[in-house]
Fold TVP38/TMEM64 family membrane protein.
Amino acid sequence: MQLLRRPAARFVLLLVGLAVLGGLVALYGPPDAAAIDAYVSGSGRAAPLVAVAGSAVLTCAMVPRTVLAFVGGLLFGTLAGGLYVLVGALLGAAVAFGAGRVLGRDFVLARSASRAEGRIARLDAWLGRRGVFGVLAVRLVPLAPYGLMSYAFGTTGTRFRDFLAGSALGATPTSLGYAAVGAAALTASPTALAVGAGALGLLMLAGTWAAGWARTRLGVPGTPPAPAGAGVTPVTPAGTPPRP
């Protein structure tokens, strides 16, 4: 227990835990849709609660949220399935954020403090001020690892309320989109499947655009600013070459 009082030890524990969870998901794959269907269907009236709780647990285990939303659409339809998975994913994201904050925040804060002018410090400070935009830009990209990024945001200066707001705004359209694809697959409707897939493609483009917009318009730290006077052509009398 004395060892866990050290920020570096807690951070290593976080990394090991994430590696184990990621390894298990990679080894065994996401839960089988048929098994989930049988389990949830057998829960009767408690099926929505089981779907929410299961989505929360599987989100913490870093099972892709897209898979969960797809299965939710298969089981409950577009609207209900998407909302059940969204609520569960937000609960799981809150738990993952808390784990990242407890186990990794002190270590990252110490590293950024030791490099006060570095990129990590600037990004951490920006997320503390405008974290909702950073979270939203990440959540709008369906391919971004939802569970892993929830742990990662916990180690940054992002405020919890900003994290939840950005997650809710960004995850709602993708959750409903993948649920729509799942529901369309159940009904074997080519039109609905095409609409759902097209909507997800637009969301991916929107997420990419949002990330670029946040970087250029909101001052997201990236490339260090050029030194004063860099790129300025020296002014010399006509016909006189500038001095080296």
